[in-house]
Amino acid sequence: MATYAIGDIQGCFDALISLLEKIAFDPDKDTLWFAGDLINRGDKSLETLRFIKGLGKSAISILGNHDLTLLSICEGNEKVKNHTLDGILEAPDREELILWLRHRPLLHHDEKLGYTMIHAGLPPQWDLTTAQKCACEVENVLQGDDYPQFMANMFGDEPKKWNKDLQGWARLRFITNCLTRMRYCKPGGKLDFKDKGPIGSQKDGYIPWYEIPDRKSNDLKIIFGHWSTLFGITSQSNVYAIDTGCLWGGTLTAMKLDSDKSKNSHEPVDSPEPTDSPEPTDSLEPVKKPELYTIECEKPV
Ligand SMILES: [Mn+2]
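Above: query sequence and manganese (II) ion SMILES. Below: predicted holo C-alpha cells.
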C-alpha cells in the first residue's frame, strides 16, 4: 500500500511505464496521483490517456491546461496546434475517453496523507476551503449541461485578480486559470500568464505564487505540476514542484506520499536541494523530505 504523485506526462507513455516499473507499482495495492497534463506534445497521448483511465480507482488524476485544451478542441473551440492529439481525436473510444476526462477534478486533497494537489497554483486569498469550493464550481460546470458554453468561454487572461463577488464565466475562467495555468503573481494577487520561464526571468513585481508571504494556503503541503523550468525545486519546504520536464528531455518524477516499509528495496534518488531554503514557519510541524523516484527522458528529436 503506497501512494505516489506523478508529474506532467504529456504523452510520454514509455517514461511512465519505466517509472512504474521502478517503483514496482501494484494496481491492486498502490495508488497513483497524477498532477495533470497527461497528454499533448509527447507522441503517445492516446496510450497515456487509455492507460490512466484503465487504472480505475488506483489513479487520481486532476486536470491540467493541456487536458482542458483537448476538451476545448473536441467542442470545436480550439484549433489543433500540433498533431499529437490526433490519435485521441480519431480513436474509436474517443467519446469514452473525453467523458472520463470531463469528470476529473481540478484539486485533490487527502486529509489523512496531508497533501493537496493542483496542476498550477492557488491565488494568495484562497485557503483550502475556498480552493475546494472554487474547484467544485468548475467541476460541476464541466460535468453539467452548460459544458459547451463553458468550453467556449473558458480560455482568456481576464480577470487577473480574485474577488469573491466575481460571477459567471469571468469567475469560472479565473478559477480555471489559477488551478491550471498560473505561475507568477503579484503580492496583491494579480496574476500573469505570459511568463513561463525560470525564476528571475519574469517581469518586475511578480513572484512565484507559492512565495507570497501571507498566502492563505501557507499551512498546506501542496503538490503541483505545470512549471518544468523550476526543475523540481521551490523555496518552500511544504510546496512540491513535480513537473520535472519529462517532455523536454528532463525526468519524470514520482513522489512517495506515505512510507511503506514493505517496499524498502527500491532505492530513492536524492531530492534536489533547494537553494536558500527557509526553515518552515513555527506553526508547521517539521516537514520530512519525501522520497523521489525519477526516470531520465530522451530529448525529443
Ligand atoms: Mn500545464
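The first strand starts at residue 3 and ends at 6.
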